[in-house]
Amino acid sequence: MYLLDTNIISELRRPRPHGAILAWLQALPEPELHLSAVSLGEIQAGIELTRQQDAEKAREIERWADLVSASYNVLPMDAESFRIWARLMHGRSDALYEDAMIAATAIRHRLVVATRNIRDFADFGVALVNPFESPFR
Q1: What is the pTM of this model?
Q2: Residue 49 forms part of a structural domain
Q3: Are 63 and 15 in contact (CB under 8 A)?
Q4: Domains in the chain: how many in total?
C-alpha cells in the first residue's frame, strides 16, 4: 500500500501527465493508494499563492483539490504520527517539516511513500518507490 507524495498527485493536474505515473496508478487497486492531509495542505498553500495573482485559476485548482481529496483515503496527522514526526525531525532542518510529516504518516500506517523526490525521504528510514522510474525502485 502506498502514500502518494504531493509531487505524484500534482503530476495528475498537468495537461499531459507523465505516462509512467498514469500506468503505475492504473495498475494499482484504488484502496491501496492513500494521501496525507499534509499533501492537501501543501496543495492549498499553492492555491493561496495563486489566488493572489489569478483568483479564477485558484478556484479551478481548488475544485481539482476537492476531487483529489474525495478520491483518496486521506490520512490525518494523528498523535502517533506527530510523535514519529518529532523523532524524525530531531536535529534536522526545518525545511524538512512537510516531508517528515509525510514520512511519519507512512511509517505510522506501514505504507510505502511514492515520490519523485527519493533523496528528500531517504534519511527518514521509510520505504520508497519512484513511479517515474522503470522499473520502480
Answers
A1: 0.92
A2: yes
A3: no
A4: 1
Q: Would you say 77 and 86 are in contact if contact means Cβ atoms under 8 Å apart?
A: no
> 123 among the known binding-site residues?
no
Name, in order, each residue with C-beta under 8 angstroms of 43's C-beta and a sequence gap of 6 or more. 6, 9, 10, 61, 65, 68
Does 94 show up as a binding residue in the annotation? no
CA 108 to CA 32: how far, in whole Å? 15
Whether 77 is in a domain gets the answer yes
Report the percentage of the chain scoring pLDDT > 90.
91
In a domain, 35, yes or no: yes
Question: Quick one: pLDDT at residue 136?
Answer: 54
Type of residue found at 27: A
137 pLDDT exceeds 60?
A: no
